[in-house]
Design a protein that fits this description.
Elements (H helix, E strand, L loop, with lengths): L1 H15 L5 E2 L13 H33 L4 H30 L1 H24 L9 H31 L7 H35 L2 H21 L6 E2 L7 H12 L58 H19 L1 H10 L2 H7 L18 H26 L7 H28 L12 H24 L6 H30 L17 H23 L6 E2 L3 E2 L6 H7 L1
Antiparallel strand pairs: 1-2, 3-4
Helix pairs in contact: 2-3, 2-5, 2-6, 2-7, 3-4, 3-5, 3-15, 4-5, 4-7, 5-15, 6-7, 6-12, 6-14, 8-9, 10-15, 10-16, 12-14, 13-14, 13-16, 13-17, 14-15
Length: 575
């Protein structure tokens, strides 16, 4: 009876208090009833909605602004847009590092949002002040414009990784109900994200055309400021992670320890490898040993006869530290394999928008669709995909496979990459048809619906999958950096897209020939560029499938595996 009573007390305690590494706003163990879960996540999702509203209100109109207001050539504008998107999506690597190691995720969100607001304020000033407008001071206006949008980049660099990981931190993976809620969190996070995108590329773009660029920017700044106030109002309901210094230090310690003991033989029994006991690990989750990258296991061997020095952090690591290092190293080929997908995504907000600007955008006798609003098609497709995936596909697959996730993360990413390849192929075919019919009446912008829809479906599978993969598979102490790695796929993809544009332009225009990227879109050959991206993506998808079969998911000692399958081979090929 006493034993049963003790078990009930432990179970009740687990239901009342959260026993992971989080704390409440006073630094105590969080109460499950008053903190975290959806009641806290909704505050966080709201500020993400406003940030995406602002970002896409700027990003989708960027090509139009650069070519029409700043009078840049199309290829120069495309390069500037791609460089800006690259910086914006690579900055989260630095922001995630600072959030995880030093500032904390909550503080990083507040500081980066302030920088974001500063960028919007500078942009509104440059667009509204009579002496700074492009018709009066074109050089000054251009300088202030780029300063403003790169301040937005810096703000996004801290905001995106810290906020998304902070939102996911509100769910306790050791609690069965919250673990299932967390699997849905990334889906509904992206629904809110796409809702912000949808409003940004419709209402905000409409305001830019009818009320002026400056008035629309003032609206964006006001919405961002209001959402920051709401975010701060939810402070008491959040669960916080205390930063513990550089998240990269334990990884370096494993590499150094393994190198120092590179001549030691590996033990036949994994039980001989060093690990702290669960009571000593505190709230830190312990990971199971795996047999991948076994050379790193030497970092966990206790050197015989080395004395107390053998237990120093740079000479001896734990199994958990080594497994975390293995997971990070295993992410490198996955990250590389997703770069062609990032290149395809970069076209949606650049050349896709430019295509729409030279087509018939009339929807009825009295309404003409703004070019940047065409991006709404992609956002709608992503919202529909994520909703159908979470509410229809996943429940069916859970019943069919018996797994909580329904479909493995890496397979979900691979499906999204396949849709992106199809999107590039359709875009090439539509663009070729548009060029052949350029001498007659303008084709309707509705011909772009299939390519935008395919890219929206690709985002619904691949982008959400990348978020889950890089958040869940990194060590617990570097999850903001994990979100930064996911975002860097898009940033590096945009940068590679710029390099491919430059290389293709030089190759196609050599010998005095007309290049692929003329100032007049009707004299360009975007269709060939799209086919090039589709071919790169197809070859890469085959390589990705090979790499994915070699990867393993994180497996914890106390909570069991995170993920449905021991290896991605089971998840990618058989799921």
């Amino acid at each position: 009876m006493e034993k049963k009573s003790l078990e009930f007390e432990v179970a009740d305690d687990h239901e009342v208090w959260v026993h992971d590494s989080s704390v409440d706003h006073r630094g105590r163990s969080p109460s499950r009833a008053t903190t975290g879960s959806w009641k806290a996540a909704m505050f966080i999702i709201l500020i993400e909605f406003s940030e995406r509203l602002s970002y896409f209100g700027i990003a989708t109109s960027l090509m139009i602004y650069l070519t029409k207001v700043l009078q840049e050539e199309m290829k120069v504008a495309a390069k500037n847009a791609n460089y800006w998107m690259s910086v914006t999506t690579l900055m989260p690597l630095l922001g995630g590092f600072l959030a995880d190691g030093y500032l904390g995720r909550f503080s990083t969100v507040v500081v980066s949002t302030a920088v974001y607001l500063l960028g919007l304020t500078v942009l509104a000033t440059a667009q509204l002040a009579p002496g700074l407008r492009p018709d009066n001071s074109p050089r000054v206006h251009e300088a202030l414009f780029f300063v403003a949008i790169y301040l937005v980049s810096v703000g996004t660099g801290g905001h995106k990784p810290a906020l998304e990981s902070f939102g996911a931190d509100q769910f306790d993976e050791a609690h069965a109900a919250e673990r299932v809620q967390k699997m849905s969190f990334f889906n509904w996070w992206n629904c809110a994200l796409c809702s912000g995108v949808l409003l940004g590329v419709t209402a905000i773009v409409y305001a830019q055309e009818r009320l002026g660029w400056g008035a629309a920017t003032v609206v964006l700044a006001a919405v961002m400021a209001a959402s920051l106030a709401v975010f701060l109002a939810g402070r008491r309901s959040y669960r916080y992670r205390v930063p513990e210094g550089s998240p990269l230090t334990p990884l370096l310690q494993v590499l150094v320890a393994a190198f120092r003991k590179r001549r030691l033989p590996l033990p036949a029994d994994a039980a001989e490898l060093y690990e702290v006991n669960p009571p000593q690990s505190g709230k830190k989750r312990l990971l199971c040993h795996t047999y991948q990258l076994r050379f790193l296991d030497r970092a966990v061997i206790v050197e015989p006869g080395a004395g107390e020095d053998a237990f120093g952090p740079w000479r001896l690591s734990t199994v958990t530290q080594v497994e975390e290092t293995k997971l990070v190293l295993a992410m490198v080929p996955i990250w590389v394999c997703t770069l062609p997908f990032g290149m395809a995504v970069a076209q949606v907000s650049t050349f896709f928008i430019k295509q729409g600007s030279v087509m018939d955008r009339r929807l009825g006798p009295h309404f003409e669709l703004p070019p940047a609003s065409i991006f709404a098609l992609s956002a709608i497709a992503m919202i529909a995909t994520v909703a159908a995936y979470d509410k229809a596909l996943v429940p069916y697959l859970r019943r069919a496979t018996g797994g909580q996730r329904g479909i493995s993360i890496l397979r979900r990413i691979g499906i999204g990459m396949a849709f992106a390849i199809a999107g590039m192929g359709v875009a090439a075919a539509v663009e070729r048809w548009r060029l052949l019919s350029s001498g007659s009446a303008l084709p309707s912008v509705l011909w772009l619906v299939p390519q935008f829809a395919l890219m929206g479906v690709a985002d619904g599978f691949a982008l959400v999958g990348l978020q889950e993969y890089f958040y869940e598979q990194v060590p617990d102490g570097m999850r903001s950096l994990g979100i930064g790695l996911y975002l860097s796929v898009i940033g590096a993809g945009s940068f590679l897209s710029s390099l491919v544009i430059t290389a293709a332009d030089r190759a196609s225009s050599s010998g005095g020939r007309a290049g692929w990227f003329a100032k007049d879109l009707n004299r360009s050959r975007l269709d060939l560029f799209y086919w090039l991206l589709a071919c790169i993506g197809a070859v890469n998808l085959a390589f990705y499938a090979l790499v994915a079969t070699k990867c393993s998911y994180k497996q914890t000692v106390r909570a069991g595996r995170v993920g449905d399958d021991k290896s991605a081979a089971a998840g990618f090929v058989a799921a």
